[in-house]
Amino acid sequence: MAEVSILVDITKCIGCKSCEVACKQWWQLPAEIASWTGSYQSHSDLSYNRWTMVLFREKETADGGVDWIFRKEQCMHCQKPACVAVCPTQALARRPDGIVDYDPAKCIGCQYCVEFCPFDVPRYDAAANKISKCNMCADRVDAGMEPACVKACPTDALTFGPREKLLAGAEARVAELKEAGVAAQVYNPEAVGGTHYVYVLPQGQPSEFGFPENLRYPSTIGLWKSGLQPVGEGVAALSLVVTLAAAASAAFFNRNRPDGGEHHE
Amino acid sequence: MTNHPRDFENTDVALIIGSNLAENHPLAFRWLEKAREERGAKVIVVDPRFTRTAARADLYAPIRPGTDIAFIGGLINLALSTGRYHEEYVRTYTNASFLVKEGFDFQDGYFTGYDATKRAYDKSSWAYETDADGKPVRDMTLAHPRSVFQLMKKHYARYDVETVVSVTGVPKERYLEIADAFLASAAPEKTGSLMYAMGGTQHTVGSENVRAYAILQLLLGNIGRPGGGVNAMRGHANVQGSTDLALLWDNLPGYLAVPKEDIHPDLATYLAKETPKAGYWTNKPKFVVSLLKAFFDANATRENDFGYDWLPKAPAGVNCSHLAIFERMSKGLIRGMISFAQNVVIDGAHSGFEAKAMEKLEWLVATDLFETETAAFWKRPGADPKQIKTEVFLLPAASFLEKSGSVTNTGRVLQWRHQASKPLGEARSDAWIASQIMLRLKRLYAGDSSPAAVPINNLYWPYGEEPDPEQVAREINGYDVASRKLLPSFAKLADDGSTASGCWVYTGFFQEELGNLADSRKTDDPSGLGYYPGWGYAWPLNRRILYNRAGADPQGAPWAADKKTIWWDAAQKKWVGYDVPDFVPTKAPGDPGGTDPFIMNAEGVGRIFSNTMAEGPFPEHYEPMECPVNNIFSEVNLNPAVHLFDPVEHPVGSFDKYPVICSTWRVTEHMGAYTRHIPWLAELVPVLWAEISPSLAKARGLKTGDKVKIRSARDEVEAYALVTPRVRPLRVLGKQVEQVGLNWHFGYTGYVTGDIANRLSPYVGDANTWIPEYKAFLVDVEGVK
Predict the structure, then answer these.
(1) Does the distance separating the beta carbons of A24 and B686 come in below 8 Å?
(2) Contacts of A49 in chain B (CB under 8 A)
(3) CB B190 within 8 A of CB B225
């Protein structure tokens, strides 16, 4: 099966949030009327019922102007998904087409994915004792449709299709922007083997668009996978849980370091 | 608009001024992004605030609200003084060569003919010089000092760059960059598109702002051409349709004037006064009589003036615009109001006054999807319901998904929508509600011969208990009265009572053989220019670009190979091409009138000089009613033709007390007040915020998230401060002037609530349309302790 991807061209996004609403509508996720964020951004963070959101960032430019950045945030659908590696029940699974799917029926609420995700995406709900995240509308994709957010995007800032084609399109777009004097780049980070959400970013560091600095694949996973990867769904072994919990807290600690480094190694 | 949103993909440069295109028309903006990607088009945004549209612009300039004429006047001056205009187009297709009568002048801010006591002009001197046959005299060299070209040149020579940038607050370098980019569209092979919306119109000089845009586009040869045009971005899906069908206070359907009691006593006088001597409007009697036949059918006969007497007439000296209606309501002169989906408590000017005026009503019928602020005006914050005697009837309306019918989009394209689901509960379509009201009136007036009863009894009302939208559509299209066969074109309408049409500009959209063309969904586009002639139906006669004769040169060949509309085929002796000719199809370029593309004007050409406006034949800069500086172009601060309302009822603020410019606008997340009733949209923008510059925030000790009070001379509201470098103070005539902006979506009903921004706005309107000046007024801002 050919891999699929979504290309986000930041230079075409108008920050309309149609993708946010389309996601909520397709998945029938309840609205969360919250206190104001202090900006055009609808909420301060992703949540159990908010799988995608447009981040709004303002940056003053050298010439006295303003850059206003709109960046859609959601699960990145990594080639090497840490969440899948640590999920003990295969509730999270990488499909052959590259989509990192999620099956809530299998989720036991262990939250290892929450701790290990290098992009800090899955969100846990205590009442449901489950996590949630974007699954690139795998159901729609299987029915031959584009994901809901892509369908709703009015300016083609979001496009869906075969990965190779979108990657080539992203490179072409970056070349075009460079010609126009914009030091653009493709964001498809190698640290996680590439992502199935690929971005065209205008000039600036990925962190200015809200991506992690020094993105790393959590190295504790390697240790854990070599000897401790659970087999099947039998995950009750106490020693395993203890080991994972230790690994998770280490990962959590590292993710919250200002420099994002993994100094424990 | 003259063009249509899909056509934006054909432009070389777009000037978005007074429109927040990406936020309020995201799908239209898509085609501009395509033009940029595929043609290298430049996108220019001129807006007081750095909006989401500005974020996607190639060139952005901040501008002081209310100074568009200075901005555009400066571009006109630059175009003329540096030769960057489309010379052949201007000479042939506009009235630049026409001579103006001796005696016309402009002095000290006034054109000739001003009467200060009436605040109105006698326009008799704003006229062409004519020859013995009454034909305008032209000087094709454009050199005559009384030619429109030279008068224009003289008028706008005053709009030099230094003056313009100091009045508008636009940084000079940026202004010149914008001028270079947009004036480049003067090249015959290039086109530039101008988009505007209510940022242009909601001013005391709103109509003249649009005239200024039109003059600039005529000078650059950008009208009638793909990728060009003066493009009004209508505020929602059917604003174009509602104005076509006479939602404007001074129009009957099809842009026919509402008859006035004093000057239009009978049909013959009305037609004589309203029908010009030349141009396509010479057919007006056919449109008027056909409209009367649609209204009154068999009861309309030649003997009774086709029922003309039964039309309501505007009383002498009484203005019936929104502002004037609420002024009269406040004096107890209006007993009842039917409000179809209008929410005046939110969107009215000085809206606290309008809400208070409604307390004088005996009854109110509010027809809406939700209980809006207007339906709930009697329990608004601060009101005492016990003191309000108005009887309120709230009628639940069906939403657009729950009924069938057409909408006419901003590109004049009628598109039929089919009912997707049955209305919830007791909700009914607007057509059902309107029809039931009329059916019941007819029952109440049956057998009555009093003057009030006669028009009701004679009205043709065949819609029955459950109106069929297709039946209404057929009547709007028009038919032969005897055979009831649908007419294919308004060219078939007659003034003898043999035809009927509810809105002549729409005739042709519903045909006998072809059926309902608004429902046509063909996707072929032979031009490759996005005309899509089989998708819906663009009035008039399915023309996708108006005045498209101007898309070809005087000899009839396209100006540019990649921007073809129609062209003259000498072998076939007719106009051929991708669009329906907006011209007599067999009139050759060499025929009399063969180079007159603007067929709706008596003179056949575009009007750089016009006698139709209230305040002058050329747009002239005047300050908003509440302004931070005195007018530097003349000593006349305010447009001398606007009506002044009672300053005690509607106080006017001065800059010393209210030192911050305020404007109101929308956000993409909300539509009017309705979306606050929809949880998925309410959560996107949950509070009313005020956008404030870092310097103003510093001066008032404010930070983002603080509650602020914003006061105008009329009222005050509370909002949250959003301190952002996207809003900057402007340097205006040597002064640093701060500005603040608020969206007007909020109110006291729905899932998210907030103060009503329009409580602050001034009670003054444009001199022609009376649209209120929502976009430029003065306030002060302070933190709430």
Answers:
(1) no
(2) none
(3) no
Three-state DSSP state, A90: coil
* Neighbouring C-alpha atoms within 13 Å toward the C-beta of A246: 10
- DSSP string over A176-194: HHHHTT---EEE--GGGT-
* Residue B641: half-sphere exposure toward Cβ, Cα within 13 Å: 28
CA distance B717 to B753: 13
Q: How far is B570 from chain A (nearest CA, A)?
A: 42
What does the block give as tokens for B778? 């003065």
Quote the CA–CA distance of B172 and B166 in Å, as a whole number. Answer: 9
- Minimal Cβ distance to B26: which of A16, A24, A34: A16
Structure tokens at B669: 């997340």
Alpha carbons B634 and B568: distance in angstroms, whole number: 47
Query: A103: Cβ–Cβ under 8 A, 6 or more apart, which residues?
Result: A90, A91, A92, A93
- Choose, out of A13, A24, A36, the residue to mutate when testing the contact with B (most B CBs < 10 Å): A36
Domains of chain B: 5-232 (3.40.228.10), 660-783 (2.40.40.20)
Nearest by CB to A156, from B30, B56, B683: name it. B30
Task: Determine if the pTM surpasses 0.90.
Answer: yes
CA B510 to chain centre: 26
Q: How many angstroms separate the CA atoms of B129 and B126, rounded? A: 10
Mean pLDDT, 10 residues at a time, chain B of 785 residues: 96 98 96 94 97 97 98 98 98 98 97 97 98 96 98 98 98 98 98 98 98 98 98 92 93 97 97 96 98 98 98 92 96 96 95 98 96 96 96 96 96 97 96 96 96 97 95 98 98 98 98 98 95 97 97 98 96 98 97 97 97 98 98 98 97 98 96 94 97 97 98 98 97 97 96 98 97 98 94
Tell me the three state secondary structure of residue B289. helix
* Residues of chain B found within 8 Å of residue A36, distances taken between Cβ atoms: 686-687, 689, 705, 720
- Check CB contact under 8 Å for A42 and B684: yes
Cβ-in-10-Å burial (0-12, 13-18, 19+) of A126 comes to exposed
Q: How many helices (H) and strands (E) does chain B have?
A: 21, 30
Instruction: Supply the ipTM of this predicted assembly.
Output: 0.93
CA of A152 vs chain B CAs: smallest distance (Å): 10
